[in-house]
Design brief:
It is a single chain. The chain has 6 helices and 5 strands; from the N terminus they run αααββαββαβα. Strand 1 and strand 2 form a beta hairpin.
C-alpha cells in the first residue's frame, strides 16, 4: 500500500466500484471467486476482472486482503494506513471481521524493528477466535 490518502470513490472505474460495493455490502470477507459470482449479472465473466479491480482497490487503500482467509474486506477505518498497523479480529464461528489499530502495539513493533534494523513496509495482524456475540452463545 502506498500510504497515500484513499482515492475518492468517484474516481474508481465501473468494475472497481462494483467490487468495492460488493465488499462494502458483505457481512463477511469475500473471496475473489465469490465476488465474481455476485457480479456475474453486472457483466463480470472472468476472475481476471475481479483481480484487476481488487489490485487497484488494495493499492489505494480501500480494501484489505485477509491472508489467513484468502479473502477481502472493505476498509472500515480511513486512517488505518497512517497508523502503520492494520489489525483484524476474525470470528471463526460467524465470520465477522473487526478492523482496528492499536498505538501501543504499533509502537512496540516499531521499537523491535528499530532494534533489529528491520525496514517495515506494512504490518497486518490477524487475530482469530470468537466474537462477543458468538462467545456468549
Amino acid at each position: 500500500m502506498s500510504g497515500s490518502a484513499p482515492m475518492p470513490i468517484k474516481a474508481l472505474t465501473k468494475n472497481q466500484s462494483l467490487v468495492f460495493d460488493a465488499l462494502s455490502d458483505a457481512q463477511t470477507p469475500l473471496s475473489a471467486y465469490t465476488i465474481l459470482d455476485r457480479l456475474r449479472d453486472e457483466g463480470f465473466r472472468a476472475p481476471l476482472q475481479v483481480y484487476r479491480a481488487l489490485e487497484k482497490l488494495l493499492d489505494i487503500g480501500l480494501v484489505h486482503r485477509l491472508e489467513s482467509l484468502n479473502a477481502f474486506v472493505a476498509c472500515s477505518h480511513a486512517r488505518c494506513h497512517a497508523s502503520g498497523l492494520i489489525a483484524f479480529a476474525i470470528c471463526e464461528l460467524c465470520g465477522q471481521v473487526s478492523e482496528f489499530s492499536d498505538a501501543a502495539i504499533s509502537k512496540r513493533l516499531g521499537q523491535w524493528a528499530d532494534k533489529n534494523s528491520f525496514a517495515v513496509e506494512k504490518t497486518v495482524i490477524e487475530i482469530r477466535g470468537a466474537c462477543a456475540i458468538c462467545n456468549v452463545e
